[in-house]
């Protein structure tokens, strides 16, 4: 069962990546070209899932939306990791000094700040865009990486090989890179997968509210928002983007669970 969870996550994530990569060079139709004469067509050999109220091919828009989703997830998780991991290492290796406690309290304050509210503030200051959504999601995810890295670093710092490295005169940065970071990397990999799923949900919510991707950028959340206007006449328009979001989130969550089961030595012993 644990192996099935991992492979199911790998298959779903790989499918998302393949679709996003293919969308970079090819889609069946232009995903942003409006053709009112072809609006609300049913599925056919030409339009596999039909067209929306603007006459845009749904398959093409879903493919382009996968590309947007993947980019937002990668950038948001990268922002969170590049800031949160070094900060978590620094706090976890600092022997509970005053500045580490202060940094941890600031992280807790940021953790209590909703990502959606942060996105609204950034959108009011900088304007609604995909970059605004990526920045807001990334900043809101930083405290999670800080906490995970700090907890793992504090455990590693109690090991005998770390004490031996300190006695031998190895510098703190070298200990962090050579001993602490490799041992917390599995935890960070699992958290990155889970954070990717949360980033997908957050981006969809922000796009639904008009705070992320502009109308010229295909997005699953915007597809849901626009399909709401035709929900009684063409309810299937809400099905496809909702299904895409659900499968993408499920894939990254299954991948995270599978990696945890695979990498956690305690769980390996139980199995």
Any descriptors?
0% strand, MetI-like fold, mainly alpha, single chain, 271 residues
Report on this structure.
This protein is 73% helix and 0% strand. It is mainly α. It has a single domain, classed as MetI-like (MetI-like fold, Orthogonal Bundle). α8 runs antiparallel to α9. The radius of gyration is 22 Å and the shape is elongated.
- Work out the helicity level: over 70%
Shape designation = elongated
The H-and-E topology, N to C, reads as HHHHHHHHHH
| Strand coverage percent | under 5%
How many domain modules?
A: 1
User: CATH topology, anyone?
Assistant: MetI-like fold
Distance between the termini: 10 Å
The CATH C-level name is: Mainly Alpha
Instruction: Indicate the low-confidence ranges by residue numbers.
Output: 266-271
- What is the number of E strands? 0
Q: What about the largest sheet?
A: none
Topology:
Blueprint: H1 2-25, H2 58-92, H3 98-111, H4 115-126, H5 130-156, H6 160-167, H7 172-208, H8 220-227, H9 236-263, H10 265-270
Helix pairs in contact: 1-2, 1-9, 2-3, 2-5, 2-7, 3-5, 4-5, 5-7, 6-7, 7-8, 7-9, 8-9
How would you summarize what this structure contains?
With about 270 residues, this protein is mainly alpha-helical. It has helices at about 1-25, 60-90, 100-110, 115-125, 130-155, 160-165, 170-210, 220-225, 235-265, 265-270.
